[in-house]
Design goal:
The protein has helices spanning 5-8, 14-33, 38-45, 49-57, 64-73, 93-97. By secondary structure, it is mainly α.
Length: 114
């Protein structure tokens, strides 16, 4: 499935907006826990103050790389793996109904002394 430019600029659905607001609020809370201003956070993340301010206020777009930078500054990059969990392979019905396959032992000739 490929997204067109129009698809990528489509407005967020209400549930998506709630997720974004929650994420931004949590980032803000972590920043305040460190007692950093938005300007200090921007400096530490290597962003301009307006870019960080727009991010935290929910305006504009931010790249994935910049989001990872921000989370790295806050010490939250270990939590990124939880965003997209590893895919676990579910056994198919066919594989569950087939008998277990056993391998025969190889019958070999006895080794001759050299």
């Amino acid at each position: 499935m490929s997204l067109t430019k129009a698809d990528s600029q489509a407005p967020l659905m209400p549930a998506d907006r709630a997720v974004v607001r929650t994420l931004l609020e949590r980032v803000r809370q972590h920043r305040l826990k460190h007692n950093w201003s938005q300007a200090e956070m921007a400096r530490r993340a290597g962003l301009s103050r307006p870019a960080y301010q727009n991010f935290e206020n929910g305006y504009g777009n931010i790249t994935l790389a910049n989001l990872v930078r921000i989370l790295g500054v806050l010490g939250l990059t270990n939590n990124l793996a939880q965003l997209v969990p590893a895919l676990t392979e579910e056994p198919s019905f066919a594989s569950l109904t087939q008998p277990v396959r056993l391998r025969a032992r190889a019958v070999g000739k006895p080794k001759s002394p050299r």
